[in-house]
Design a protein that fits this description.
heterodimer, A: Rossmann fold, 2 domains, 12-stranded mixed β-sheet, 10 helices, about 20% strand, B: about 80 residues, mainly alpha, Non-ribosomal Peptide Synthetase Peptidyl Carrier Protein, Chain A, 4 helices, globular
Chain lengths: ~350, ~80
């Protein structure tokens, strides 16, 4: 007889950074094995992959030995573990440069769990009170409410933690400085929530403020930004210089980068006060060498991500196209438990192709 | 306007629906207008009408017409 599949509500009241290594390993060993079997039973494509690997999901395997699938498979196949009729929302990655986009299929429970988990993680940083929110993007990202891009999903998800939302950019991606200044004046005594994509904040907000010679009074604000550093690396801007620059142009003292995949929306990794990205009790990270053996702490390699959220599609254990390194576990000076890590960049497309050939 | 009327008005105005649709069957995502975008504007209207500020957890739990009434009780809004 099968045990009932793990439900995220079983741990939703826990502190999202409250499990130590031993407790977390115990939870993940059980749940990730269960989820692998669940997807094996419910997704034809996924079952085919596991069969090709000669993997028996009815046996319990060590966490590091459970198969992961390369993220690009979500671009090439429609992967889901529910009936077509239960698909409630399809999320897509941003898909820049003419690449094919990932498609992620959610049922109602999956959509609800994503926001519940995101909320646990973010409120650990900002508290339960919703804050006046400045969204550094254009409202037209959300124009088509059925088309759910990663960028739109990010804005919608984080909007839950805000109130009196104001968009900082107009429909042409121009800074709406007049309304931004009115907003800042109105909430000058409040903590303000800022949200935007790393590159959009830099190019359309920060640089525009420099051009205009305006310094915004955002000393009390807290910024969350994500979406990747690719374009900023090209301009030689790293995380440190990013923070310093934003402190100069608007007095920002609290800037949190976040890292996450559209395949694992909800269980994001947020940068703590010490500048480290953190796993929560909903997620884990492993780093692998080119031969897919495990890296040691501090050794740079391919990033594998595990999330307890994906039930409607087999995205619980994926190999990304990012390079990163684990910095430590349970002992970050910010006080949060779990692994902490940094992302160093992306692999080139040739390397990825080789990689997914090996696995798929 | 009493509290019940204010509550109903927020739904009708945000989702352009008739009073007859306001019942136990009305849940988040059961009509196209009540999606995540519609949800935030509904919450904003209710907060304005009742001069309250909902906590994040309550915004997420506000999953139906009836559930919303229950949540507003926490903020001393009876109807």
């Amino acid at each position: 007889m099968r045990i009932r599949l793990f439900n995220i509500d079983q741990i939703i009241e826990n502190c999202p950074y409250g499990l130590n290594k031993e407790e977390k390993n115990k939870l993940f060993l059980q749940v990730v094995n269960e989820m692998t079997l669940h997807h094996y039973q419910n997704s034809d494509h996924y079952r085919n992959i596991l069969n090709l690997l000669n993997y028996d999901p009815t046996q319990t395997h060590k966490l590091s030995e459970i198969p992961f699938i390369p993220v690009r498979l979500f671009k090439e196949y429609d992967l889901f573990s529910i009936k077509r009729s239960e698909i409630f929302k399809t999320m897509t990655s941003s898909g820049t440069g003419g690449n094919r986009v990932s498609k992620i299929f959610l049922d109602k429970t999956a959509a609800k769990n994503q926001i519940k988990v995101l909320s646990k993680i973010v409120t650990n940083f900002i508290g339960k009170k919703r804050l006046p929110m400045l969204i550094i993007d254009t409202p037209s990202v959300l124009k088509d409410r059925t088309l759910f891009s990663a960028r739109g999903a990010g804005i919608l998800g984080f909007s839950t933690f805000g109130r009196n939302h104001q968009y900082a950019l107009d429909e042409n991606m121009e800074l709406d400085i007049e309304n931004v200044q009115i907003f800042c004046e109105k909430y000058k005594n409040d903590k303000i929530l800022l949200f935007g994509f790393t590159f959009v904040v830099w190019k359309y907000f920060h640089q525009k403020l420099l051009d205009l010679g305006i310094r915004l009074p955002l000393e009390n604000a807290i910024l969350f930004h994500g979406g990747g550093w690719k374009k900023l690396t090209e301009e030689s801007v790293d995380n440190d210089s990013y923070k310093k620059a934003l402190n100069k142009s608007c007095g920002l003292n609290r800037v949190h980068n976040y890292y996450g995949m559209v395949e694992q929306t909800g269980s994001v990794f947020i940068e703590c006060e010490e500048g480290h990205l953190h796993t929560s009790i909903y997620s884990d990270i492993l780093i692998r060498r080119a031969d897919l053996s495990l890296c040691k702490v501090g050794e740079s390699g391919l990033v594998q991500l595990i999330s307890l959220l994906p039930k409607s599609y087999p995205g619980h254990n994926i190999l990304t196209e990012d390079i990163g390194q684990i910095l430590g576990e349970d002992d970050c000076s910010c006080g949060r438990k779990g692994k902490y890590f940094k992302i160093n960049g992306r692999v080139t497309s040739a390397e990825i192709r080789g990689c997914s050939d090996t696995i798929a | 306007m009493n509290n019940q009327e204010k509550y109903n008005q927020a739904f009708m105005e945000n989702f352009s629906i008739e009073a007859s649709k306001l019942n136990a069957e009305l849940e988040y995502n059961t009509i196209p207008e009540w999606d995540s975008v519609g949800h935030m504007s509904l919450i904003a209207s209710l907060e304005e009408a009742f001069e309250i500020m909902l906590e994040t957890d309550d915004v997420i739990d506000f999953s139906s017409y009836n559930k919303g009434k229950e949540i507003l009780k926490k903020y001393k809004i009876e109807m």
